Amino acid sequence: MTTPTLCVSNAVDTLRDFAVRADGVEELLSECYAQQDQALFWGPLDKMLITYEPIGDLDWQRKFLEIDGVVNLSPVGRTGSLFADTLADPGLMAAVAAHAGPGRRLRLIPHTTTADLWRFAETLRTRYGIVVELPESPPRQDVRDLLDTKTGLRDLATDLGMTDGPCRIPPGTHCTGLREVPAAVRSMLATGTPCIVKADRGEASLGLLIFRPGADDITERLAASEFYGEEPVVVEEFLDGDITFPSVEYMVPEDAPPHLCYTTDMLFEGATHLRGNVTARELRDEWWYRPLTRGGLRLAGEMQRRGYRGRFGIDAIARDGVVYMHDLNARRTGSSHVHEFGAHLIGPGYLDTHAVGNYDFYGLPAGLELPEVLRLLGRLVASPRHADRGVVPTELTDLRTGRLSCMFYAPSLAELHELIVGARAALDLGR
What we know:
The protein is α/β, with parallel strands linked by helices.
């Protein structure tokens, strides 16, 4: 008997503690409420899925993609911890217990392993007699939390000697707090090197500050930022010029060697605004593929040795024959669902025949509804169950604010990019 799957899409949890430092925190978090929808493709398609709020236009997605087996529920409260909110909702807990079925087992897949996850799993065991399998959750919360910081990646890579070679961390330094940052920035700028300042627990590009040689407003800009305090700060070389943004995701099992899940090319608008990801067989031919995947596997092996389990992703910048690892996300990432969309709806070997990606479009009219989106996109919209290329509107919870995310698939990477351009023109975004 197959163990029922429960996905808890707590994408907001890890960002909230950092984002609350800023004014307008709910606006900052709004994109994460749409990101919850990515869990539609996590794990098996037949599952119970808990999200902060009901997934937008889910009935249409179920019918269009033929995924009737997903059940989506949300807790009554919203405190910033989806696991805590679920625990506080008796009706939702009863539904979770019923989902476990007669076998009294659940396979739990979260976006991020948090301290409240363990309380949730223990409550299911003691109060409901349900055994919870956690294939993607590190049993040591302290290891996960440390690795999910900017200093955690730099320390891990340094321990492995990855401050040099074809795959490395950018030149830089740790600061114990804000007071040390101006001197570190000036020291790097004095060598003619631009630099970027990152809060240790920063997420979603919040609070990043870029300084270039000649800057005379270092102290003022740091003091004006809401995201820096007496916590560690990383100052490292800002890499620009002729660059690309590859990313990789690995799975670290409990009792088997770590393995590469997929590789993506991240699509940025400007230096810090991520708009999408694409994965394709053509990426295996890029010069950065071998050093990045080999370097990532070195990190994965050491993480496993230290007690990590589950997925993690590495974001990198490739320039002049060197791959620089600048971020490690010790959780599922914003591209996990791209890979699983392809595997579920095209087939496990989808990369042999297709490129798959997602892209977020901004600037659509507020209050836009799905029927109008479908009208604008017209024949571009097609299900991978019945066509070899097409566009699938997804992450529709935030559509009312003027943001639309779509999945794209095509026989080649070039054709996929043509689809993105075509969708942008059809939505009349003008760029």
